[in-house]
Each structure stands twice: as structure tokens, then as C-alpha cells.
């Protein structure tokens, strides 16, 4: 396997950064470049609401990585030299949204702290406390909504949803709770941990189309 240099690693990190300043706008075709060479992909990189979305498989493979589908756990695993050579890159688990068309990456240390439930056009994530005597609470969800319905019902105007991306006439939107979990017990460890996780989620969520 080809060893990656610093330029490759920098490009990978830069291209997958999903939170940058700016407003949504129409832009010309975006070229995905690695070490000065254009990466070809069936899916087009996009900038939506200040977030950069890139095709995960094309980027990973161009950096010498490998994309694997774990049928048992229903997650996509992306392995690359970058994760092995540079300890600054945090390991993440990727959860597939809507039949392997998209994925959302979360810190791997959250694996035992969340429960995933898939419904039609919705994937819900619940926060699971370490204390089993405390019931799980709604953490966040990813909704898949037809673009015409999204516009007609004015979802964007509610302030409750964040657009993650758009593909095939569908809007992928993040919904977080209207109030913090365990708000009635602000001194509890569950309240503190869930709020910290929500803040991390809002600041560094990673969402990608893989088809």
C-alpha cells in the first residue's frame, strides 16, 4: 500500500472538515484534489449551508484507505494509513443512513453510550446512561425528507433542523432535542455528559454521501 505524505493527510483532513463559516449558495462544480491530482467520483462534492460534503469512498481510496461494510453491526468502517500513522486523528464509527447511501460518523468512544433505531426515513439515536437505573433519552435523529415537502412545510423556518445534505431530491436533516436531556436533574452526571456530547455533535458532526 502506498504510503501517504503530509500533503495527502492534510488534503484528507481539509476535505472532510464539515463545519466552515459561510452561508448556503450555488457554486460551480467542486474539484476534489489529492496531491495535485483530481479524484474522480460518481458523486459530486458539494457545499451546503457552509458544510463541505465529499464522496467518502472516493476520498478514502485515493488516500490509500479501504471502505468496508459491516453487515452485522450495520456500520461502515473506513481504514486508512492516516489513522494508523497520525494519532491526532480520532477514531470514529460510521452509521449508515438510508440503505448505504449516506453515513454519519461519531466518536468511537460513544459506541456504548448511544442506541440506534432505524425507521422509515428516519434514524434515531438515543443517549444511554452508564447508570442502568436511568432511562435513555432522545439524543438526535437524522430525517430524510422529500425536497418538495421540506419546502412546502417550511421545515427550515422552524429552527429545529440543520440541513446535512441533499441528494436525489431528498433533504437529510439533523434534529436535536428542543431542550437538554435530564434538564430536571442539572447536577446529575447524565445531564453533564449528554450536554457535552450534544455540544460536540453540533460543532463537529461528520456526514457524507457514499453513493
Automatic annotation (TrEMBL):
Residues 34-107 form the Copper amine oxidase-like N-terminal domain. Pfam families: Cu_amine_oxidN1 (PF07833). Gene3D superfamilies: Copper amine oxidase-like, N-terminal domain (3.30.457.10). SUPFAM superfamilies: Copper amine oxidase, domain N (SSF55383). Keywords: Signal. Residues 1-26 form the signal peptide. This is Copper amine oxidase N-terminal domain-containing protein. It comes from Brevibacillus laterosporus.
Amino acid at each position: 500500500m502506498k504510503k501517504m505524505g503530509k500533503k495527502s493527510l492534510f488534503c484528507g483532513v481539509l476535505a472532510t472538515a464539515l463545519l466552515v463559516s459561510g452561508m448556503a449558495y450555488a457554486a460551480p462544480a467542486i474539484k476534489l484534489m489529492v496531491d495535485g491530482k483530481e479524484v474522480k467520483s460518481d458523486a459530486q462534492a458539494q457545499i451546503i449551508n457552509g458544510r463541505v460534503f465529499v464522496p467518502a469512498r472516493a476520498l478514502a481510496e485515493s488516500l490509500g484507505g479501504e471502505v468496508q461494510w459491516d453487515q452485522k453491526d450495520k456500520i461502515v468502517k473506513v481504514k486508512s494509513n492516516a489513522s494508523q500513522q497520525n494519532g491526532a486523528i480520532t477514531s470514529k464509527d460510521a452509521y449508515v443512513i438510508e440503505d448505504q447511501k449516506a453515513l454519519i460518523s461519531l466518536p468511537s468512544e460513544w459506541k456504548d453510550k448511544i442506541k440506534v433505531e432505524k425507521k422509515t426515513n428516519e434514524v434515531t439515536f438515543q443517549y444511554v446512561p452508564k447508570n442502568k437505573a436511568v432511562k435513555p433519552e432522545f439524543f438526535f435523529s437524522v430525517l430524510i425528507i422529500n425536497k418538495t415537502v421540506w419546502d412546502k412545510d417550511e421545515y427550515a423556518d422552524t429552527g429545529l433542523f440543520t440541513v446535512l445534505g441533499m441528494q436525489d431530491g431528498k433533504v437529510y436533516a439533523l434534529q436535536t432535542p428542543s431542550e437538554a436531556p435530564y434538564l430536571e436533574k442539572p447536577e446529575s452526571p447524565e445531564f453533564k455528559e449528554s450536554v457535552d456530547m450534544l455540544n460536540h455533535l453540533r460543532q463537529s458532526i461528520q456526514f457524507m454521501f457514499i453513493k
